[in-house]
Amino acid sequence: MQGDNSDESALAFGPFRLLPKARLLEKDGNPVHIGGRALDILIFLAERAGEVVGKRELVSRVWADVNVDEGSLRFHVSALRKVLGDTASGARYVVNVPGRGYCFTAPIVRTEPRPAAAPAGSPPLPGQIARMIGRAETIEKIAAELARHRLVTVVGPGGIGKTTVALAVGHRQLAAFAGTVRFVDFGSLRDKSLAPSALASALGLSVSSDNPVPSILAFLREKRMLLIFDSCEHLLESLAMLAESIIREAPEVSILATSRESLRAEGEQVHRLFPLDCPPERATITAPDVLAYPAAQLFVERIAASLGGFELGDAEAPLVAEICRKLDGIALAIELAAGRVNAYGIQGIATLLNSRFSLLWQGRRTAVPRHQTLSAALGWSYDLLTPTESVTLRRLSVFAGTFTLEAALAVAPDDGTDEAEAVEAIANLVAKSLISLPSTAQPVRYRLLDTTRAFAAEKLAESGEAARISRKHAIYFRDLLAGLAARTAGISTGDGFASYADHLANVRTALDWSFSDQGDRAIGIGLAAAAAQFFLQLSLLTECHRWARQALSGFDPQIADPRQEMELQAALGVSLMFTQGNTEEVHAAFTRSLQLAESHNDLHWQLWLMRELHIYLTRIGDYRGALVMGERGVVVARTLNDVAAIHTAEWMLGVANHLIGNQNDAVLQCESATTHDPSRMKINMQRLGYDDRIVALVALARSLWLTGRPDRAIEAARYAVSEAERTEQPLTIGIGLIWSIYVFLWVGDWDDADKLIERLINHAARHFLGPYQAVGLGLKGELLVRRGEPKIGIELLRQGAGTLRQTRHKILSTVFAAALAEGLVQVRQYEEALGIIDEAIAQRDSAGQSFDLPEMLRVKGYVLASSARSSEAETYLMQSLTLSREQGALGWELRAAATLGRLWHEQGDAAKAHALIAPLYARYSEGLDSADLRSVKLLLDELTPSI
User: Fold this and answer.
1) pLDDT computed for residue 676 by the predictor
2) pTM of this structure
3) Which among 293, 418, 722, 864 is placed 20 to 30 Å from 285, CA to CA?
């Protein structure tokens, strides 16, 4: 915003001087740091001192065509007051007039500005933009650096805003240098020998000799001045020498330079200018969230300037965030993109950023040629490179995202460029701001900004090298991941693939090329096999499934290693099982992989595949088959003679025994999971996509409740969830939540169960775990039934059970059936309830014994008792009691006894009911506050007077 004042006068109030034209605020003669919006507000209010300015008028003047609310105005007025030192008890400059607006109340004196006149013939300092976004702190830092160092170079890639920042610093320093700030644009100069003459001209000097440097030094020797050397990258040697001479001979002169590469001059302080902060990539992001970032603010302001009256809405906020990220926060790129919104719309801009056309968008006609398109800006830098540097840059464009020096050296050296030359070229490209270093983490990661990469990729395509370089890129990542997979086989102490997650974009790019028409399918198969474990550990199940299926489609052993089929079949099975359910294709994939592992006598793979088949069999309700698979696993683990492998096999047995109904055996076999240290050497199960230790922990928690230890069960369930979350693996967290939630439901801790169920539903949706989301809905329904809200609960249970049937997820379908039957009893739909529980019991009978059969028999007895069929009810309740005792399931036994006891009590036999229930209640030494035990205690109290 520009003030109404057209003269050069300054406004003085208290210890402050405000220079509206220079956009400078001083206090006691020293510049004061103030934000751009706050300064706009101060200028407008000060120019109308004593008047009450309405809030709408103030917002309209300061924010022009951008729509903001009064909250933003209050925020910036508060910042202004803080700068001015406004306090309730002290000086007051800006006063809020309730219901009307704001008023500048201090008396103002207009004074003449102090800056001295420029020498005759010297050009004025170019104007600065009305409002700079996201650079206030940077300007302050550079100004502070100039106070300590007389030569400061602002370094950054083309279009990042170096010139704009330098001019803002120059205007800020006008007072400090008594108005003597000179700007020299070296961008149009091609002959390095003419650099001193260009400086002499900017200083207003008429020099007739061939060497103007002595005259320049003589002129500057007694001057206090700030020189701004702009666009120095193509004249580095001559300007470095000139700058050193000035700093040495003119002690009151300072130099602020801008360049895509440092001058490397003596005494130089380098300030690297980074891109504007961009909105992060998030599942949901609103307009206010996006507008908190400078890159988005610039984009929206430039759209408003082009279209007028533009307001960013929540619907377009994610697109704007994406555009800013794709443009890497480069100011020029953002301005050029914003200038095309009127033609293509925001959606169109986001789409076109993936094409070469974005490099050709035109900017301001008044801009220097190198800033009129992105292509021109990048071409300016590219043309300054040596042949080795330009070859290296275009070859590095094959990388998506970050890359290491090792990776770069796998693709950059080639005919005519050896490894040493490539290393030197990479260092030079970093210095020239064409390769960035995203962080200081080790090992060093490099990155080409997306706009630079797009430009260099065009050059790579023009060179005819694209296919050859893409092949080298794919081979490197195939070999890298294959090596990692080999090192993490068997015993492992490392973190597997976790530290290589930033290679994900490159792995995707390599796979895309390998399976393209221009690619190499053999390389693609090897890469997909090596990447399978990578995707699984990162819980990218959909991608794992996609590439495993692509590689297995038409798999030819003549061009691929049979071991690769073994790895791909296992990956296909895991990814299918957890995303699409327990289909026959999952079983076929695991079985084929196990056959191949046995043919190669690979014991580690055999154990891994047995573990996968074990979990598959439990999910389809074949608990006997899972127990057999666990027994086979024990044989393999003992052959391996590895303690960790034996633990794993024991956990397989423990989980199977829990599900079959051998609860005491399950506790003994799973208890080692509580003391097992996952940081110690262990068999690396991360390739399975989940941590099998968590499966053992939740089986332990459930078995503890079933054997009559509710407090220990809750403690184990909480521990299982916390340990699952520590893995940061979506599948593991999902497993931990699902099976632990039941323990909370069983003890009647409905509040915590509700919280965990919501976490499960959100977690499953976020990670595309379809069956898990269905389980979450079913659990929500069961909780509602328990809380006495059967109508909604029944509907959710039906939805969840339907999805589980489609995905052959039988392990929970019978559990849901029992809850659904109890809900139907609450709404007096006895026949449907009986049909559902009969079907569930028949399903379990056909598969053999199961942990939940005693509870299903109890529920059938409850349904029959509720529909006045007491004799039949008693039969099933007695069966439930008998089976509960056989399984060692005290939890089920107490429930069955309570249901039967209530039936007997209603029939007038309180003594018989008390005799059945009291001994079971007495066996509990913990968990007396749990729901079942509280209910039984009340029942016993009710029965006692009747005895």
Assistant:
1) 54
2) 0.66
3) 722
